[in-house]
Design goal:
Blueprint: H1 4-23, H2 30-38, E1 46-49, E2 57-60, H3 62-74, H4 76-79, H5 82-87, H6 94-115, E3 126-127, H7 129-132, H8 137-146, H9 150-158, H10 162-179, H11 199-207, H12 218-230, H13 241-249, H14 251-266, E4 275-280, E5 285-290, E6 293-303, E7 312-321, E8 325-327, H15 329-343, H16 346-350, E9 353-356, H17 373-378, E10 384-387, E11 398-401, E12 410-411, E13 425-427, E14 431-433, H18 436-444, H19 448-451, E15 458-471, E16 475-478, E17 481-484, H20 492-498, H21 507-510
Parallel strand pairs: 3-7, 4-15, 6-13, 12-14
Antiparallel strand pairs: 1-2, 4-5, 5-6, 6-14, 7-11, 7-15, 8-10, 9-10, 11-12, 16-17
Helix pairs in contact: 1-6, 2-8, 3-6, 3-9, 6-8, 10-14
């Protein structure tokens, strides 16, 4: 009789051989085959038992039953029978176990794609190819196999990602806090404030769950302020026109907005990374996280409605300190050339700019007096102009590079006054940062001191490239529950309609400009 360890070896080997045979079939999915080859065909979902040199049978691991139930619930047409197959695996032969193993792995890939598949109106405009590859079946299986706990990994997959999961909880909390209140309408009219009386005050009190005494007292001031804080309105405690409009929109409207943004959050991956940056364009705000903890936040300036900042998942690979700013050729043509013609060639020097002979690294500086500025202005000649590093450079002290086809990046700016605006929609697509040096220090970590050089256009590669997610959430998680933000780009109606929660289309109001290379900042330099 064989020793117990040899029995186990023979049993495991029997399933591995059966798996190898199944994956050599012409119709075997190549991505799943690659995963099993990389682990010498060791099974992930099944195990074998036996009392001799040949295994007597086996069973599925507990996690397989959970995956089967999730797959059957979300994709019944394909996986309705999978829970029964898992239950029937007890005592099955290696060949049957191998076929069940492959079905479960296929189900995991399909389930991961299903739970992460946002509606078309909610998807990101650009996803870095390396990040997109993480959703391929082989990558999904590798992540599951590498997880310290397969059960916890499945839980995380079911929750989709932290933003999605938090918004789902926020939806339940919103319903509990606001949806049960009387949905009465408060007629339009003058703003209502502390000390006012009358029928409209009584209706306002009823709307917010208070008695209808008709007196605007401290309790009503507090209730109005709480509603305002939860609906992205200045928490003044005064029921102005914007507050009354939000109240009269009703709880169902805001529930629909939360549900729409849950779908936007679905476009983010379940494993967002050990370190990542999150930008919400609708809020014009940035946060950065490490090991699940918020490490910092700041205001941003984002694209104007006619030059919208796209949604993206990219990777910050390097920073450029004391950068030059290459002015886009259309701005050189339309803005800079007319000013040089009007004010003279000295305008270029006063703006700390220089014209160059071309776009190569060895391009030479040109004498502005020798340039045909009329030809540049009428478009018959193309000219490269860049702004030198310095305190007035439109990129500020540092820019954060994340390779992408849209030409979008994050950068510093000398114009700090714009961050005091409530709606910070001033850029041509790129994202300007309120505290760029703080983000640079966090990204670089121990590299920070060495990177603080005065050299112009100094590239510093990150030791740990960091993912940045640029989202558009008009309902987002906040410290005290969901926070609503203005739909500054008019994207909500199309998504609400896609979810069956919106009215008729208004193409002119909802047209989303096609993403295009950004002009960066163009404030006062030209």
């Amino acid at each position: 009789m064989l020793a117990p360890d040899l029995v186990a070896a023979h049993s495991d080997r029997a399933v591995e051989l059966a798996l190898q045979a199944e994956l050599q079939r012409p119709d075997a999915p190549s991505s799943i085959a690659a995963f099993y080859r990389s682990r010498q065909y060791r099974p992930l979902w099944v195990k074998v038992s036996g009392s001799g040199p040949f295994p007597a049978g086996g069973s599925a691991r507990p996690e397989a039953a959970r995956l089967a139930a999730d797959a059957a619930r979300s994709m019944p047409a394909r996986y309705a029978g999978l829970p029964g197959a898992v239950a029937a695996a007890n005592g099955a032969a290696p060949e049957s176990l191998a076929r069940l193993e492959l079905t479960l792995s296929q189900a995991l890939g399909d389930y991961a794609a299903k739970v992460g598949q946002a509606p078309a109106a909610a998807r990101l405009d650009f996803v870095d190819p390396a990040l997109a590859a993480a959703s391929e079946p082989a990558a999904v299986l590798r992540a599951a196999a590498a997880a310290p706990s397969l059960a916890q990994h499945l839980t995380r997959l079911e929750e989709v990602n932290p933003v999605y999961n938090t918004l789902r909880k926020d939806l339940a909390a919103y319903r509990a806090r606001w949806s049960g209140l009387p949905q009465v309408r408060v007629p339009e009219g003058p703003a209502l404030r502390a000390g006012d009386t009358g029928d409209r005050v009584g209706l306002l009190r009823r709307r917010l769950g208070l008695d209808a005494r008709g007196v605007f007292d401290a309790d009503l001031t507090k209730a109005v302020g709480a509603f305002q804080a939860a609906h992205a309105l200045p928490a003044t405690g005064t029921a102005d026109a914007a507050t009354l409009a939000a109240l009269n929109a009703g709880a169902a409207h805001y529930e629909a907005l939360i549900q729409a943004n849950i779908e936007r959050a679905r476009a983010l991956p379940p494993l967002m990374g050990r370190r990542f940056v999150l930008v919400n364009v609708a809020a014009a705000q940035l946060w950065f996280y490490e090991d699940g903890r918020l490490k910092g936040s700041m205001r941003t300036v984002v694209g104007a409605p006619q030059e919208q900042t796209p949604t993206m998942a990219g990777v910050i690979t390097h920073l450029v300190f004391n950068p030059y700013w290459n002015i886009p050729v259309d701005l050189v043509r339309d803005s800079l050339a007319p000013k040089v013609r009007r004010f003279g060639a000295g305008y270029l020097q006063n703006a700390n700019m220089e014209a160059l002979s071309g776009w190569t690294d060895d391009a030479r500086a040109l004498d502005p007096q020798t340039i045909d500025w009329r030809a540049v202005e009428n478009g018959s000649a193309e000219l490269r102009v860049r702004q030198r590093p310095g305190g007035d450079n439109m990129m500020g002290r540092v820019k954060f590079m994340l390779p992408n086809e849209l030409g979008i990046y994050l950068h510093d700016t000398p114009n700090k006054a714009l961050f005091q605006s409530q709606r910070r929609l001033f850029s041509a697509g790129c994202i300007r940062l309120e505290h760029a040096p703080e983000l640079a220090a966090w990204l670089l970590g121990p590299q920070s001191a060495a990177a603080a050089s005065a050299a112009a256009d100094q590239r510093v590669d990150l030791a740990e490239p960091t993912v940045v997610y640029i989202t558009y959430l008009t309902a987002a998680p906040g410290a005290s529950g969901v926070v609503f933000y203005p739909d500054v780009y008019g994207r909500d109606p199309a998504l609400l309609r896609a979810l069956g929660k919106g009215g008729p289309a208004n193409p002119a109001a909802e047209r989303k400009p096609a993403p295009k290379p950004s002009h960066g900042a163009w404030e006062s330099a030209a």
